[in-house]
């Protein structure tokens, strides 16, 4: 049955009580899940047991894609790019990337360095840009 409340104060008090109870339950549940994942002792709870997800923590090794490259890696790839452009002048970035089995994004930094060092010249704009040895 629905009760008729006399004032907004009673409604506000009920909402505050509900919010406090809900916050307490969420915190308790979160702590239980964290402790079960971390292998600690579980908290005793008066609330009903909650369903917990099993989380598998895996140590990630260095992936081949993503992450920062060292200066040596960029320089080494730059040398590969320069060698390829010397042997195959006039190709676009997409063609070079396909031939070297990489992507254009990976090529960008070494190629910009080679252009800045004036080892490679360019003709055209954007995707139509072709590369030549200087």
Instruction: Give the full name of the CATH homologous superfamily of the largest domain.
Output: Winged helix-like DNA-binding domain superfamily/Winged helix DNA-binding domain
How far is the first residue's CA from the last residue's CA?
A: 87 Å
For the record, the count of structural domains works out to 2
CATH class of the largest domain: Mainly Alpha
* Spatial strand arrangement across the major sheet: 1-3-2
- Helix content range of the residues, please? 40-55%
Structural class from helices and strands?
mainly alpha
N-to-C order of helices and strands:
HHEHHEE
Spatial extent as radius of gyration: 31 Å
Largest sheet: 3 strands, antiparallel
What would your notes on this structure say?
By secondary structure, the chain is mainly alpha-helical. The chain folds into 2 domains: 7-44, no CATH class; 71-133, Orthogonal Bundle (Arc Repressor Mutant, subunit A). 51% of the residues lie in helices and 7% in strands. Strand 2 (120-123) and strand 3 (130-133) form a beta hairpin. The longest helix is centred in the N-terminal third of the chain and has 31 residues, at 8-38. The radius of gyration is 31 Å and the shape is elongated.
């Amino acid at each position: 049955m629905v009760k008729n409340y006399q004032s907004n104060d009673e409604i506000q008090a009920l909402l505050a009580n509900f919010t406090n109870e809900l916050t307490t339950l969420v915190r308790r549940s979160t702590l239980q899940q964290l402790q079960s994942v971390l292998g600690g002792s579980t908290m005793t709870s008066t609330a009903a047991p909650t369903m917990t997800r099993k989380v598998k923590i895996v140590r990630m090794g260095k992936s081949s894609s993503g992450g920062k490259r060292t200066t040596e890696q960029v320089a080494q790839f730059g040398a590969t790019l320069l060698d390829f452009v010397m042997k195959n002048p006039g190709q676009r970035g997409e063609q070079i990337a396909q031939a070297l089995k990489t992507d254009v994004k990976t090529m960008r930094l070494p190629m910009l360095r080679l252009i800045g060092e004036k080892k490679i010249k360019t003709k055209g704009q954007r995707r139509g840009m072709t590369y030549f040895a200087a």
